[in-house]
Give the backbone structure.
Amino acid sequence: MFEQLDEPQEKPQVSIAMTLGILAAYLVGAFGGFCLFIILSDRPFGIQIANAITYTYFAFWYVFFPTRGLLDKYSLRDKTVQRQIPRLFAIHCAFLISIFFGQTVWFEMKPRLPNSWLTGWTLYAWVIIFFVVVLFFTQVLISRGILRRSLKRESE
């Protein structure tokens, strides 16, 4: 056990091709999400639906592919990862429900808020963005932790 502590950990390497592919996927997702928000913004629950689709798209990429600071990648072909998919899906659904519920409550509060909160990029918009971003990265870190631990247990 102590021998393992003395050995330096080898960091996973990410190729330039993979980096460019992931960048392209992020750009496609950002553009697609932007279009979804424009198309669905006037419909009932349109913002929440567009947010759920965009959130799911980016959560998939952040959980399974390397990102800045999180260089581990998890192959969907790996049997250990496949066994964790139902658990990850349940966690994702719980986060989506909390975001959907939070946004619905927040949007219902909108008519009761002072006008200064609702003009431009004000506190109202920043609270929604902050809420979704915090939940997003919490889900990503929880899901990656589950995959890391399951792969570590499997390799022992």
User: Anything to note?
Assistant: The chain has five helices and no strands.
